[in-house]
């Protein structure tokens, strides 16, 4: 299981970094609205990781699938946040000031606030998408065999 979520978590992070650098190349990296595409990247990667784990396991349990989704997104979130921290502190120090100015916020809040925002938004996206995808991947109890698991 570690192999699945670590592999897909790293690939999600690479895709997020590539997307950000593409936006930087075009000059659109200053528009936070375009980060909504990050949700699609997260969603695709988490779904593929959970689907791969579900097909590899004979007895797919909800808890294990949920764990795969959370850890896949968690690894991607942490790696992307580390990249953004390096980018904001070392490569483009004016990037954080530009974002804060667009949001009409005081710069005294600093770059750390943006980094924490990236991390929190990534974790929130991971949790929501994992919950949604587990509804698609879980086994239904709406069968004759499943009726014996209901309360009478």
Alpha-beta classification: mainly alpha
What's the assembly state of these chains?
A: single chain
The number of helical runs is: 5
Number of domains: 1
Which residues form runs of ≥5 with pLDDT under 50? none
Radius of gyration: 19 Å
The general outline is elongated
Which bin fits the share of residues in helices? Answer: over 70%
Taken as a percent bin, the fraction of beta residues is under 5%
Write down the secondary-structure element order: HHHHH
Count of extended strands: 0
**Mean pLDDT reading:** 82
**Ends apart, CA distance between termini:** 36 Å
User: How many strands, what sense, and barrel or not for the largest sheet?
Assistant: none
Task: Provide a short characterization of the protein structure.
Keywords: Membrane, Transmembrane, Transmembrane helix. The protein is mainly alpha-helical. The chain is 74% helix and 0% strand.
Quickly list its features.
mainly alpha
Give a structural overview.
This protein is mainly alpha-helical and 152 residues long. The chain has one domain (2-139). 74% of the residues lie in helices and 0% in strands. The protein contains five helices and no strands. The radius of gyration is 19 Å and the shape is elongated. The relative contact order is 0.15. This is DUF4199 domain-containing protein.
């Amino acid at each position: 299981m570690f192999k699945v979520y670590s592999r897909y978590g790293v690939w999600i992070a690479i895709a997020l970094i590539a997307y950000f650098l593409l936006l930087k190349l075009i000059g659109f990296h200053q528009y936070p609205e375009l980060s909504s595409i990050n949700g699609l990247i997260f969603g695709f990667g988490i779904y593929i990781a959970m689907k791969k784990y579900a097909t590899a396991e004979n007895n797919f349990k909800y808890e294990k699938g949920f764990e795969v989704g959370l850890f896949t997104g968690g690894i991607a979130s942490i790696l992307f946040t580390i990249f953004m921290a390096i980018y904001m502190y070392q490569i483009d120090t004016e990037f954080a000031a530009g974002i804060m100015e667009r949001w009409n916020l005081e710069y005294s809040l600093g770059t750390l606030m943006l980094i924490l925002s990236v991390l929190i938004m990534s974790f929130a996206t991971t949790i929501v998408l994992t919950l949604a995808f587990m509804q698609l991947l879980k086994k239904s109890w709406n069968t004759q065999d499943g009726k014996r698991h209901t309360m009478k």
